[in-house]
Amino acid sequence: MKKISIYVLVILILTSSCKKVLDVNKDPNNPTDVQEALLLSPIELSVSDQVYAGNASIIVQNFMQTITANQPNPGIWSYQLFNTDFDGDWYNFYVNVLNNLNILNKKAEAGGRYNYAGISKILTAYTLGTATDMWGDIAYSKAFKGSDDFTPAYDKQEDIYKTVQSLLDNGIADINKNSITKPAGDDYFYQGDMTKWKKLAYTLKARYYMHLTKAPGYTAAQQADLALTALSNGMQSNDDDFKFAYSGAAGSENTINLTFSAVSTYILNDTYVEGFKSRNDPRLAKIVKPAKATGLYTGRKVGDPLGDLSKYSYPTDFYAGASSPNYIVNYSEALFIKAEATFIKSGASAAQPVYQDGVKSNLTKLGVASADVNSYLAARGTLTQANAIRLIMEEKSLANFFNIENFTDWRRTGYPAITKVNGALSDIPRRLLYPQSEILTNNQPQLSAKLTDRLWWDVQ
Amino acid sequence: MQIKPLHKKMIMTPVCIIIMVCASFAQTVLKGHVTGPDSQPVVGANVKLKDASSGTTTDVNGNFNIIYAKPVTLVITAIGFKSREVSITNETNIKIELLENITELNDVVVTAIGVKREKRLLTYSTQELKSEELIRAKEPNLINAMDGKVSGVQITSSSGTAGASARIVVRGAISANGNNEALFVVDGVPIDNSETGNIAGGAAGAGSSRLIDIDPNTIESVNVLKGAAATALYGSRGASGAVLITTKSGTANKKAAITFSSDFSFEKPLLPERQTIYGQGTTGIFYNGEDKKTSQSWGPRMDTLIINGKKAPTYDPYSYFRTGTTTNNTLSIGGGNNNSTYFISYSYFNQQGISPKNDFKRHSFFTKYSTNISKNFTTTFQLGYSNSKQDRLPEGASNGPLFVILVQPVSWNPYPVLNPDGSQRLYRFSRNAPLWTLDNISNTAIVNRFLPVTTFNYTATKWLTITERIGADIYTEQDKYTENPSAAIDLKGQIKDQDVNYRQFNHDLIVNASKTFGKFDLNMLLGNNYNSIYTQSTNLTGTGLVVNNFYNVSAGSTLTGSEGHSSQRKIGFYAQANMEYNKFLILSLTGRYDGSSVLYQQKQFYPYGSVAGGVIFSHFLPESVTQVLNFGKVRLSYATVGNDAVGPYSLQTPYILAGRNTNAGYFPFPFQGQPGFLLSSNLGNPYLQNEKLKEFETGLELKFFDNRISFEGSYFNRKSLNGIIPGIQISNTTGYGGTTVNSASIRNKGIELLLTGVPVRSKDFNWDVTVNFTRIRNKVLEINDEKGITQLGRVIKGQPYNIFYGVRYKRNASGQMLIDDSGLPVVDSEQGIVGDANPDWTGGITNTLRYKQFALSFFFDVKMHGDVQNDVESVAFFYGTAKVTANRAPIVVSGVNETTGKPNTIAVDAQTYYQSRQYESSIQDGTYVKLRNVSLSYQLSPSVVKRTPFKNASFTLTGRNLWIYSPHFTGADPEVSSYGSANGNQGIYAFSTPTSRSINLSLKLGF
């Protein structure tokens, strides 16, 4: 009996110390707080990898017939898409990028580190702008509240556009506070050069003003005015390009380079490659590689029987080498925005020199000899009332390789002209589908949108 | 013969007898010795004078003393033996031999917390498998050895890879995302059975279930506790059922018995049938694979193909596989004296798989030593040590060889492997050459594991015992994955090195009191449990290899590393009361109070328990009935079990080291010299509580005709509530990808039947039959109603667990397929449910026939329905290698035209048709009947053995998977789950190593 009471005592002692024994649930693997610089680097990488050149962007390049896969129909190249195809993109945009930008902004504002706050706002504007041009109405004002709102309602696209402009304005205002703390190496894009961030912000303002040239309640002339004003503070040279440099080392390869892998079977589209030939474009050899087996410039036509990968063309190392940069917003785009706005405001002849500057800036960047630049410009002719938008948009899209701006411009202006592919399951898509994850978790009225539906600003 | 010295010993104490004789006038002292039919002493047999209340029990040597006065009848009863009555008049010495009670021999079983109980008094369902049956299966992994034999249990091996994992689910899945596999307990101590051997981003495919570290030869018996009432004492960890393993022990007072057994087996792969008529190419045009490459076999007929004026040769892609071989040698010694027993075993298992570069090797040591420290104090120490090593190549639709081999054109000669410039020689793009991978990719997992258990048993008084059991499960795992650069798939090569340390400590203190009050037998148990699990892993990856043939991470141009720690603890207090009235009425109550470190701090502790009753109704039946129906029992139970089915650190939302995911792998930060963190995508839930399982069970047990037929049937209805769903998807617009909630509910209802019979029992010939049957219906009742979430991948509210969901064909209201104007089925723009992985029922039948020295046993098992996603077939459709693609005539798909509604008459050519097949067409009915095991053995007769140096000797010939009938499945063996034992992988057949058919020869010698 004595023994038993000893055991009972042992049990009692154990009971009283239980709480302490169970207190081992503090995560030893992950920090509970980090400083701004640590957040900025992975956010910037995600902006380049996932917002600019992620899965959604690759799908858009299929729509725009820049690329296609050596696969039979049906597939995304013939517009077979399912809501699940966008789960990853939505996750990357909202969880990886926007929520972390939201946290970065709050942290930076609270700590008075306004350069970080400014960058955070500019990147938020860029990411929201990209998202709304793909999906239309999206969540922002009610988003990022964690368990306080599990089903955030979406904002109207028009409100997202207003948010984008005000984020850019506030971002510029933050930078103008000239706070001492500046990012350095943690800012892959500009290494803390805040002047360049401001130029980017103004260029983006112009970009998003011009998206609304057809939007209900907006006029092309007003938008062109706003864009031109913004551009006066925008990018001034190719050095101002908003680009992400990849080292090309294992694990640090350029995203576009990884897209054209032997496993994905992505190659250039026939429409894209033939375009260079028909324009007699000196950029052909600069952008397109001849097929390994034939030495010819050959794109693949969607719906053709499966071919031999070695008989198709890939992009060159300018855009698609392991250490090529991702040109997210480039100076040429700023010039083409200016050309379009000038054309709207002042006509073709006023737009002509700006348009030519745009073409030149891109050809120079690609290393085209100046004689070839001039003969190409001559061959392309002068802008007229009838051809100005077509020429500006064709050239803009060539300078915006892999950029979803091309899809937006096509929807706004019809250029660069494309026709639906062989075996297409529908007309050419005019938007992306909402992800299945939203259908399962946040049933908003907008989610039933079809690929051929038009966004708010995409008026017929 | 052995008894003689014992008798001498007895006579050595005449003084004692004289004293006794003097002390009790006219009384006689009877000294007795009780043995079994094998002349071994029977320990603990009850010896009573008929009609007297008192009696005695035999000691460890089978001896007893009893005093009697007049001619009387002696009643001897012992568990596992038929009771015997012996008349005595004035004997002083007696030798009594008891006969074994065949049907009752197995009737003491180990229940939760290692408590031994008579099976007839249990109030819940358990099923025991004996050593002999487990060894007969010739499987290195105990889980596979149990396959098809236990009702209510579903076992699925992941693939035919040597050392591959297997999944065991008892009474259906109850957790939406958590672990649904049964808890494994060795001699009272829980052990880890997770699937390991996989490095993230390393070789795709299934790893090993860690139970593989246990040598089946050291197992005495296995008892499966199925329902919550049976496992309630185990608490949380037994919520999905428990498999109790009892290891072998030495026998007291027995000279060392040495047993040597040796197995050798050959394995042949079971491969899917394919077409071999057509060669490489497309639209009937030949591609030679050298300068014209394609992955397809839609080329010309091989019998018409002429190359360089000669008939083209055909090559068998399956020649890649080899005949597997397995050797297994076991040496064990067991014995004991009157104070202690010992058992020592060593075995070496070596399997060379049917896929080259796949092998599994295991050294296992096991020792157990029990001794009586004092009269009332016994202790047992045991230690298991194993060293396991598995080598394998990636499986599945990965960079491994099988994705190519299974669909390789027959016109392609895979040799030479390399081009003159040293690059891979390939017939297609985007994949590695299978033979190249043999020399350039490797994945090795080495595990060193210790399983020590120490048990102290103190018998305080006759009715009170105190047991303290301390056990541990400690292993280190060293994993290494290497992959040379491959231009064919644009990968720059990588080396991954991972070390995992796992430690689990478990303590149980049990106070057990048993007392009889008149017709009441009362048994009370009180206990305390403490369990802690700690894991640590470090991982180093070198990517972009710059030094040839140097397999150290330093060969990588980019080096990344990570470390992880995880710790969780649990404390439990439990009590159990079993009351029996007059051996026919049983009431059992259990209760447990658990605390878990992983839950919300204010609600870390949670209670649960069970109540169960049983009536042995045969007690009331007239003898005329009990002569036929020897035993009848009904039982009823209700139990709740709490469970903390979530990993540690799920309450917080920390920052996580950022990383970059590319098609070349995952690269954690720093990226280009910059460090980086992002907020965790998983929103912590600080208020997490335990989940609950409620189960009602009722059962019927019957024994007929002198126990020659016995039946056991159970019905259960179990439902999980407040189920924890770790990482449940939430709208990403919240800023997070997922969180952890307490909301899932899954119901499983089922019937389990077990019928055993002995149709023939005679001196020379015996025939035993065992039949089991299981039918389970499960349904997901809730995922998260509050947030309106009704689907989690393959788990959908209102549907059975693990359905197949994906792209399907469009059908009209009457279910007819809609066909477009080109003759192809129309694809539905919305995905939907296309199959269900759950079988309608499963069953097994084992027959064992014994004739003199021969024994023949054969075992069939059946799975009725239950869909399989056959990825091999869907890829083979596309590539034109599937068996059906041998017929290349145009196809008129049956269905109606989408626009006209008239029956389709438009023919589509075979290549277009098969190449446009969608997900739905990969779903096949996985029904099978398998002749899983046939075993023929011969035991040398005693007369022959006498002339040898052996005590006994036997030879066994075993065949595994000799026949598989799967009428709707086009692969070879529908019983695989290629991507491992995790919930979401179930029912997927995808380029994993094929399972095999084997012939095993074994020899067993006793010294």
TrEMBL record, chain A:
SUPFAM superfamilies: TPR-like. Gene3D superfamilies: 1.25.40.390. It comes from the Bacteria. InterPro entries: SusD-like_2, TPR-like_helical_dom_sf. This is Starch-binding associating with outer membrane. It comes from Mucilaginibacter pocheonensis.
TrEMBL record, chain B:
It holds the Pfam family TonB_dep_Rec_b-barrel. The keyword Transmembrane applies. Residues 315-962 form the TonB-dependent receptor-like beta-barrel domain. It is a multi-pass membrane protein. It comes from the Bacteria. It is found in: Cell outer membrane. Keywords: Cell outer membrane, Membrane, Signal, TonB box, Transmembrane, Transmembrane beta strand, Transport. Its main location: membrane. Residues 120-242 form the TonB-dependent receptor plug domain. Gene3D superfamilies: Carboxypeptidase-like, regulatory domain (2.60.40.1120), TonB-dependent receptor, beta-barrel domain (2.40.170.20), TonB-dependent receptor, plug domain (2.170.130.10). Residues 1-26 form the signal peptide. Transmembrane segments: none annotated. Belongs to the TonB-dependent receptor family. This is TonB-linked SusC/RagA family outer membrane protein.
